[in-house]
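Posted in: Structural Biology > Protein-Ligand Complexes

Title: Requesting predicted complex, zinc ion in pocket

I'd be grateful if someone could produce the 3D structure tokens for the following input. Sequence and ligand are given below.
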Amino acid sequence: MRFVYKNGLEKALTFSYDDGQAYDRKLVEIFNKYGMKGTFHLNSGTLDGVTEIPGEEFVKSEEVATLYEGHEVACHGVNHLNMPALSVSVTVSELSDDRLDLENLTSKLVQGFSYPFGSYSPEVISAAKAVGIKYARTVNATHGFFPPSDFMQWHPTCHHADNVMEYGKQFLDVPGYVELPLMYVWGHSFEFGRSKDWTVIEEFCEMMSGKDNIWYATNMELCDYLTAIRNLEYSADGSMMHNTSALSIWFLSDEGKLTEIKPGEIKSV
Ligand SMILES: [Zn+2]
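-- Reply #1 --
Done. Output follows.
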């Protein structure tokens, strides 16, 4: 047997965009046009402000809930600081205050994170876990499609400027031995905004859109689903599985039969 994604979908695609600049408005529009789901990592301390580039601004606090509706809002630290250089207490407040502010703005739980500058250490990981962060994205490209082994060091497939079209084609034709294939693209919307060239993301989203075997999901939806699979409890002989999570899990038998294991349910393999 092999596990599959929600409702039996074979693969998953997710995006992660950092820093919350106003160019996110156009990026969200593109995602919505093509049915993509993404996660937006925001610095609550820079919302409503301007950048060092004249005419460039960050998203407004008052628009966070509506702009990112249908996507995930996640942490990126209050002030975009290089966390391994901070004391643990400052790292803790950078994260917990970011959660508090973003949760107040969205009225949702905010438990995702991406490391500012992609920079982290064992101390930063412990601080993030201690304040309720469930996953943290790095900037280390895997150029592959395996789900992460450690959600606190979630390495993306690639940056959008790193041959994303080529990796997208490989993903559409991913070999069968990859269980739960996942493509994860990250970047900043200002990279498109400053160059005034949105071609690559438009073309990529268009190429990946409307596939009936892809789950378009936020980072947190994937983290929750994959964690639920990893938390399954098995009988000693491996013939029964107990879904202890609050989510349904799907698997395919060797004969290709799709089975749903509902929350709390015990199923035979
Ligand atoms: Zn950043």
